[in-house]
Amino acid sequence: MGRMHAPGKGISDSALPYKRTVPSWLKLTSEDVVDQICKLAKKGLTP
After folding, report:
1. pTM for the complete prediction?
2. How many Å apart are CA 26 and CA 29, to the nearest integer?
3. pLDDT tens digits for 14-30?
4. Do residues 41 and 47 make contact, with C-beta atoms less than 8 angstroms apart?
């Protein structure tokens, strides 16, 4: 099927990474990330 708003008929699409795990060099836990987001949100920043 072709594109609606473009002349091309390409089927290119973004691909998800093969491994859905956290990199070994990343030392943050999910709780640390949530805490950091909450701290920044209290300052008025968006995630």
Report:
1. 0.49
2. 9
3. 788 788 888 899 998 98
4. yes
